[in-house]
Amino acid sequence: MKYAVIGNPIDHSLSPAMHNANFEALHDEDASYEAIDIPQEKFHLIKEIITEKGIEAFNVTIPHKENIIPYLDEIDSQSETVGAVNTVKIVNDKWIGYNTDGIGYVTGLKQVYPDLEHAYILMLGAGGASKGIANELTKYVQPKLTVANRTMSRFDNWNLDINKISLTDAESALSEFDIIINTTPAGMKSNKEIPINLDNLAEHTLVSDIVYIPFKTPILEKAEENGNPIHNGLDMFVYQGAESFKIWTGKMPNIKVMKEAVLKRL
Ligand code: ATR
To answer: Quick one: signal sequence residues (predicted)?
Structure first.
């Protein structure tokens, strides 16, 4: 079976290496996964591109997670909530969309924080990534989730039962949380910004970021300097891929091999 990831730019994507390593570990010689660069202006050709290549299952990444929706016959409820799709499965010419980013993040978080069910969690940022994770977290976590954002109007289309606060209020209440999750792009790439002042951080609080390039964002570096446990976005990437594989095949992937394949290339 032929798999792919579509995006733009896509040449640095680690998805092909990660999925091909899994196929090899499972001795699936007929499976192959490629990266396909589709610029914005060619996106209207998506159906032709995928069909011509004989692809039956694919991932969708930046900037096409929303663009893909009009081309799908069905989307799952997580994609509906987030308004974005990262996984597509083609069954009898029917294109079905899923979003595994939120479940991928939460599954990764559970590995490092097994008692997630009882955690008091603060999320920073209220974009698409945040909404997807918040929607998954509210399914498992008993204490009410708190989400902090610079711009309160971002919450207007959020229908989740959560506490919505400003970043300033989050700074003063910081010591009340067991886990802090940064979903903002502050600290990504060469940007050295930290989205919140960490002075009030409690000693035990786990600080997590959905980014893994850089491997330690400035917020994680600062938390680590403080002696706090930290967690980056690598697990989210691996588990979103693992969840996509489960949707496509109904089989369990070799997560260890997938993670090693990514780590080797970082
Ligand atoms: P994504 O879809 O990847 O989540 P997004 O929709 O662009 O990305 O959302 C980015 C989020 O990070 C937003 O909540 C944004 O806050 P605003 O709504 O106030 O714009 C937040 N964000 C971005 N840069 C930030 C920064 N430097 N400090 C704090 N929050 C930031």
So the answer is: none
Q: Is the CB of 205 under 6 A from ligand 1?
A: no
* Phi then psi dihedrals of residue 95, to 5 deg: -95, 120
Rounded percentage of the chain residues whose pLDDT exceeds 90? 97
The answer, yes or no, to whether any atom of ligand 1 lies below 6 A from the CB of 149, is yes
Does 190 belong to an annotated binding site? no
Asked if residue 121 and residue 188 are part of one domain, the reply reads yes
CA distance 100 to 147: 20
Mutate to test the pocket of ligand 1, among 86, 150, 183, 189 (most ligand atoms within 8 A of CB): 150
Residue 266 has pLDDT above 80, yes or no: yes
CA quadruple 80, 82, 86, 90: dihedral, nearest 10: 0
Q: 128: domain range?
A: 102-231
Cα 239 to Cα 224: distance, rounded to the nearest angstrom: 24
Q: In the prediction, which pLDDT does 41 show?
A: 98
| Mean pLDDT of the region 193-209 | 96
CA 184–ligand 1 middle distance (angstroms): 5
Does the beta carbon of 184 sit less than 6 angstroms from any atom of ligand 1? Answer: yes
Nearest CA owner, ligand 1 atom 29 = 195
Specify whether 110 is located in the same domain as 209.
Answer: yes
Are 41 and 142 in the same domain? no
